[in-house]
Amino acid sequence: MELLLRQQIENIVELSDDEFSYVLSHFSTRKFKKNQYLIQAGDFAPNDYFVIKGLIKSSYTEEQGKEHIIQFAMEDWWISDPQAYHNSKRAILNVSCLEDTETYYISLDNREKLCADLRKMEYFFRKKTQSGYIALQRRIISLMSQSAKERYDQFITLYPQLQQRVPKTLIASYLGISRETLSRLSAV
């Protein structure tokens, strides 16, 4: 378990064994069952989660009940409700497990302390945040400018492993298309 988190960090910054032990002391672990919430809309979101094993989705649900998938997170990915986590506000997203899941998580206070004490981690979290913003920008542009087929092809290219693990209804929601449209696109 520790190895995956260490590899994630060391893809960006090198850590000595002592530094990694210090980093790890700021994290906790938690297991969740399939369909269990990590965060529910309306609650506070005090933690950012790193997926060790399993699959998670974040979604926004309209007042009428329609669910919009914002993000998936599988092994070696991070997930939370960013505005709630960073601003200590109530969540607007639901974050729940699509599979039994194991996570490391870090509170905002622990993250701030870790970043203040170890500049390498401040740099790590800044780079992860930048990558997330870039991915979000790419996703928004894709939703605004690409056809359903182009969005589907891009999804399969970027995340081929998700196609086997995520129900088609959820993939369709992520792509902003109907389940029927997705069935036609995946049959081609």
**Main pleated-sheet profile:** 4 strands, antiparallel
Estimated helix fraction: 40-55%
Distance between the termini: 39 Å
By helix and strand content, what is the structural category? alpha+beta
Mean pLDDT: 95
* CATH C-level name of the domain at 2-124: Mainly Beta
Low-confidence stretches: none
Shape: globular
For the secondary structure, the number of strands is: 8
Q: Within the largest sheet, what's the order of strands?
A: 1-8-3-6
Q: Could you state the CATH homologous superfamily of the domain at 2-124?
A: Jelly Rolls
Q: What is the count of helical runs?
A: 9
Radius of gyration: 17 Å
- Strand portion, in percent? 15-25%
From the 3D coordinates, which CATH architecture of the domain at 2-124 would you assign? Sandwich
Q: What would your notes on this structure say?
A:
With 188 residues, this protein is of the alpha+beta class. It has a domain at 2-124: Jelly Rolls, CATH 2.60.120. The protein has helices at 2-10, 17-24, 82-87, 108-117, 119-145, 148-158, 160-165, 168-175, 179-187; strands at residues 28-32, 37-39, 47-53, 55-61, 67-74, 78-79, 94-97, 101-107. Helix 4 (108-117) crosses helix 5.
Summarize the structure.
The protein is an alpha+beta fold and 188 residues long.
SSE diagram, text form:
Elements: H1 2-10, H2 17-24, E1 28-32, E2 37-39, E3 47-53, E4 55-61, E5 67-74, E6 78-79, H3 82-87, E7 94-97, E8 101-107, H4 108-117, H5 119-145, H6 148-158, H7 160-165, H8 168-175, H9 179-187
Antiparallel strand pairs: 1-8, 2-7, 3-6, 3-8, 4-5, 4-7
Helix pairs in contact: 4-5, 8-9
